[in-house]
Design goal:
By secondary structure, the protein is mainly alpha-helical. It has one domain. About 85% of the residues lie in helices and about 0% in strands. Helix 1 packs across helix 2. The protein is rod-shaped.
């Protein structure tokens, strides 16, 4: 597997919300920087554009926040399901007691 294929896989994993190790994050950032330099060179800027780096940092920060929010939603959804099941059991118990008293 080539280094570029590996970094593209890291990029794909990150955009899907997977957690990367610090080494993987560093490798991915280096690859992003290389891509930025290549793009800047292609468009005749010649030197890395600080706006591009700043925007990429903001994008990565935003992506991390979205991933964290998605994880929190998933955690809350699981907790809600547990509470729904407990609530259903309690309702059944109350109904059973009321029927026993009515009989």
């Amino acid at each position: 597997m080539t280094g570029e294929a590996n970094t593209e896989e890291l990029h794909d994993r990150m955009t899907k919300g997977e957690t990367l190790s610090s080494e993987e994050q560093t490798a991915l950032q280096i690859w992003y920087d290389e891509q930025d330099r290549a793009e800047d060179s292609l468009f005749g800027q010649g030197s890395p554009n600080s706006d591009t780096a700043r925007l990429r940092e903001q994008l990565n920060t935003g992506l991390s926040e979205v991933v964290q929010a998605a994880k929190e939603v998933e955690r809350l959804t699981e907790q809600n399901e547990i509470l729904r099941r407990e609530n259903a059991k309690l309702r059944e118990a109350v109904e059973s007691r009321l029927l026993d008293k009515a009989a």
